[in-house]
Amino acid sequence: MRFPLPWRRRPSESETDIDAELRYHLEMLAEERDGSEDSNAYARRKLGNATFIREEIYYMNHPAWLENLRQDLVYAARTMRKNPLFTTAAVAALALGIGANTAIFSVVHAVLLSSLPYSHPERLVKVWGQFTRDGLARLPFSDPEYFDLADTNRSFDSMAAFYTGSGANFGSDDAAPQRITRAFSTAGLFPLLGVQPALGRTYSSEEDQPGHSQVAVISFGFWRSAYSGDPNVTGKTIRLNGRPFTIVGVLPEGFDFGGDHQVWTPLALSRTSPGGRGSHAWQVIARLKPGATVAQAQTDLHAFAGRLAEQFPANYGGDKGWGVFAVPLREELVAQIRPALLILTAAVAFVLLIACANVANLLLVRAAAREKELAIRAALGAGRWRTIRQLLTESLLLALVGAVAGIALGAVGVSAIRGLDPNTLPHVGNVHLDGPVLGFTGALAVFTAILFGLVPALRVARPGLFAAMQDSARGASGGRRGRSLRNALVIAEISLSLMLVTGAGLAIRGFYRLLRVDPGFRTDHILTFRLSLPAVTYPPGAPVARFYQQIQDRLRAVPGVESVGAISQLPMGRNSSSGSVFVDNSNASVLLHLPNTPYGYLEADQRFVTPGYFDVMKTAIVSGRAITADDTISSPAVAVVDARFAAEMWPGRNPLQQRIAVTTVPNSNPPRPVWRTVVGVVAHVHNHGLDEDGRVQVYFPNAQDPFDGARAMTFALRTRSDAASIIGAAREQVLAADRSQPIFDVNTMDEVVAQGLGQRRLSLNLLVLFAALAAVLAAFGVYGVMSFGVSQRRRELGIRMALGARPGEMQRMVIAGGARLAIVGIAIGLLGAFWLARFMAPLLYGVGPHDPLTFAIVPVVLLVVALAASWVPALRASHVDPVEVLHQE
Amino acid sequence: MKQPSDRLDLLQGTLEMMVLRTLLLGPSNGYQIAKTIEQMSDDVLQIDHGSLYPALHRLEKRGWLAAKWSVSDTGRKARFYRLTPSGRKQLLQEQSDWERLTGAIGRVMRPA
User: Fold this and answer.
1) Sign of CA dihedral A632, A633, A636, A640
2) Where residue A412 falls among pLDDT bands split at 50, 70, 90?
3) Do B29 and A24 touch (CB under 8 A)?
4) Domain locations along chain B
5) What are the b/e assignments for A607-637, b being 16+ CB within 10 Å?
6) A46 — contact with chain B (CB < 8 Å)?
7) 8 Å CB contact between A605 and A578
8) pLDDT tier at A463 (50, 70, 90 boundaries)?
9) I need a surface site. Which of A253, A258, A300, A682 has the fewest CB within 10 A?
10) Residue partners of A785: CB distance under 8 A and separation at least 6
11) What is the DSSP letter of A636?
12) Are the CB atoms for A251 and A201 separated by under 8 Å?
């Protein structure tokens, strides 16, 4: 291997120039004494020492430090080439450490550090309401609340409301219908974010009015895919849910505010006829005035909430825990992922430290072998600092080569990360191996070089080299002084890897706890997909229920389908809704009360289901009956509640035939509920994920939908074989019923549950990967130190053998040495792990950070690893041939 | 490695000034420059030929001189130096500094 360094050799060009110039001068001088015998001597005397002149000119162009660096690098490169095994081991350890750090930092940089792609993003905040009493910690706003907020705020330059996560049926007569993602916003959103459209304009405030809002802006990606990037797209008509909208503009590439939405249309809130105060739907974003702080905004919003509670005590008063607050937009986006990223950052830092300890140990071992060489260099006049500098240059070169290999590993990691779902990792598209990341890696390489290189360099370059020469000459105890240092490094490696493995162990335990949670339904052999009926073709009421009845009949006839049902919002799916439920005949303490009403109410998840839904999901019917085909628009209004609802509302009583209500008689004062009879109780379902218990739940027949809440339904099909194999047939049946109806959100139920676990699974996998890396590196550390110990003690071992020690005893001796290091490392590591475990809490479910089982198993695992790593050197020790060893002396 | 660059500042500076001055007459090579200085000073000043070349290279590095290889009167290839415009400016500056300095010293040393 050759290193084509630019200054590998002294530049020859100018050297010959100077030589030629001096030669000319000498010749001219010699000619002055032409003919005389001493003419040449005269010339040389007159000019002086040509070598000095040459060097003076050379150093004029090449400073001394650069020359020293050149020498050190050449020497370091040669040393690396001469020890391929050492170099490979060190570079591999560093590459793993640096590669892991590079990959994780690229995520940290993209997600936590880089600024949001909006103008002055630090001034953007999300505004939320809350009713803490009902467990509603982050509540969007209703129309009147938004207007009140926008009219009275003092801390904000501007505010905008928006609604995301919607969709629309999009299609033409000649292509298959398509479901596209859609969001709504007030006209102010785009100027507020400082976003300029790539084409055309965004909608105006005139267009953001009821009756004038048939305009749309489309995303860059949708413009490309649906309109082939047509530059004349503005002015064209797009049909959403059967209604025409005029495209006025195209949003810039990469715009992903609130998620990846293909179409934005005006929210068109009405001041003259706003909806009720209680229908909280609009998310609100605001831009702080220049110089205003979030704290000032909080004070303002607090006062605003107070005024509202005074004005409308029925809505906000009493002990509801009403409040309004602001969250910086960045915080809003990354708060959830931050703990996991910080834990992973710490994990890779540990891996790197262990790698550094490994390399430092390798350097110490090699330094023992090089003591003689370094002593000779010192004897020849190399200063202490010169030697340290030279050793550090070797470390630096090692770290740089490790960094290059690490960047290659990091690139593999980054490309794997970029393949992740944006729901698992926000901003995943922004994860790059870019300048800042490479800069970080470079800095890391220099830092690691100092970390693993400095101690060996200082130790080796100490005074007292005479002793070193004597030591090495005797060949016996070259490592005695270094042994305690090497042992300390190995102990550090073991304790660091124990902390990491403990973290991974806790995460594994938590994850498997989570997987064992009973969600209240079976997840296997279920295909789900969603349908949403446009109001243009299906007016509210009977037509919607009739269509779903028809679809359900068709799907049931598909071969391989066992049973079919549908629900307005699938558990653990993208949509969820809750609302107030009046409860009759209960004095449960969690109930809230309106003035002048004898019955209380509470917030509950509300779902509409078709007959057969619970059967498909195998959600247990605890008592009574499920929703059946006999529950129609004309039959008595009924409801099914979950077991928790029943137990909390009517403890010790029969919940069947009790009454609940979700609507009130119009214009009744005090509000008079429209009662429904509870006919069944089903098992509690985890609607929001395995790790969330969630609220109490009520179900209604979709045929008795009082507020058009069953217009969009998710079908669930229980299949006899692979659920995914039914997709094509299911789509055909829907299109056969209505060829303009796209099916979307097509997933097996297993996939739906897995998506909810994505982030946990990702951090778990990475943590386990890094812990395994740490353990392997630590094992190599133990192996290296024990091997070196054995090779250093060959003479002693040979004598012991000659004196009659059995191979088994020798093995035990070496393994006991390894065990001693491991036990000290494990003890220190346990203390560290015990202290650090608290930070793991955000990643854990159902298991305490000081889980006894984890803390019992992990040390045993590491002890076994350490003993296994000592095994090979122990075998070697027992094979020392006493005759051969003593012969060498 | 010690750099023998700073022996006797005054001499060095003076040598450089005189080199610039000789090149005002036209391009010249190192040997000729040494001879010219010696002749112009009526052989009073003996140039240290050894320090001439570092001085020439230093002046070239600062951009006051430009050098190129060409054939000398004697038919040999030699490295010829010439003044650059900035070298000319530098010479004027040093010349006036020098005159102020010697004038001042002269006034001090004038017999009372």
Assistant:
1) positive
2) very high
3) yes
4) 9-109
5) bbbbbbbbbbbbbeebebebbeeebeeeeeb
6) yes
7) yes
8) low
9) A253
10) A361, A486, A487, A489, A490, A821
11) P
12) no
B54 contacts A53? CB cut-off 8 A: yes
Q: Does A21 touch chain B (CB under 8 A)?
A: yes
**Nearest CA to CA, how far is A454 from chain B (Å)?**
25
* pTM attached to this predicted model: 0.78
Q: What average pLDDT is seen over chain A?
A: 88
Asked if A283 and A140 touch (Cβ cutoff 8 Å), the reply is yes
C-beta of residue A510 within 8 angstroms of C-beta of residue A845: yes
Place of tokens 């002793």: A467
Q: Which among B31, B48, B54 is the nearest to A24, CB-wise?
A: B31
Q: Which of A17, A56, A67 sits opposite B5 (nearest CB)?
A: A56
Assigned token pair, A868 = 């296994």
Contacts of A601 (CB under 8 A, 6+ apart): A580, A581, A582, A583, A591, A592, A593, A594
Residue A594's identity, in one-letter code, is L
Contact A142, A278 (CB under 8 A): yes
Shortest CA distance to A145 belongs to which of A12, A282, A249, A22? A282
**Mutating which of B16, B28, B31, B76 best tests the A interface, going by the most A Cβ atoms within 10 A?**
B31
Give me the phi and psi of A328, to 5 degrees please.
-50, 140
CA distance A46 to A41: 9
State which amino acid sits at residue A432: H
Q: Are A613 and A566 in contact (CB under 8 A)?
A: yes
Structure token digits, residue A783: 């192996």
The residue among A678, A626, A625 whose CA lies nearest residue A655 is A678
3-class SS of residue A430: helix
Q: Sorting pLDDT into bands at 50, 70 and 90, what band is A35? A: low
Written as one letter, the residue type at B20 is: L
Phi and psi at A288, nearest 5°, equal -65, 145
Residue A658's contacts (CB-CB under 8 Å, 6 or more residues apart) are A583, A584, A585, A586, A649, A650, A677, A678
The number of C-beta contacts closer than 8 angstroms across A and B is 60
- Alpha-carbon distance of A789 to A791, in angstroms, equals 6
Non-local (6+) Cβ contacts of A513 within 8 A are A845, A846, A847
Separation between Cα atoms, residue A373 and residue A396, nearest integer Å: 20
Whether residue A28 and residue B4 make contact (CB cut-off 8 A), yes or no, is: no
Give pLDDT, residue A185: 96
pLDDT of A769: 94
CATH for B9-109, options being 3.30.565.10, 1.10.10.10, 1.10.150.240, 3.30.1240.10: 1.10.10.10
**Helix pair angle (A852-878, A758-792), 10° resolution:** 30
Helix (H) or strand (E) holding B58: helix B49-61
Q: Where are the alpha helices (DSSP H) in A317-383?
A: 329-334, 338-379
Q: What is the 3-state secondary structure (H, E, C) of A573-609?
A: CCCCCEEEEEECCCCCCCCEECCCCCCEEEEEEEEEE
Cα A587 from Cα A168, distance rounded (Å): 43
Instruction: For A272-305, give one letter per residue: b (16+ CB within 10 A) or e.
Output: eeeeebebbbbbbbbbbbeebebeebbebbeebb
Q: Which tokens hold the place of A552?
A: 């359900």
Residue A729's contacts (CB-CB under 8 Å, 6 or more residues apart) are A558, A559, A560
Helices (H), A312-337: 313-316, 329-334
How many CA atoms lie within 13 Å of A761's alpha carbon, on the beta-carbon side?
12
Is A24 near chain B, with CB under 8 Å?
Answer: yes
Q: Give the pLDDT band of residue A500 (cuts 50, 70, 90).
A: very high
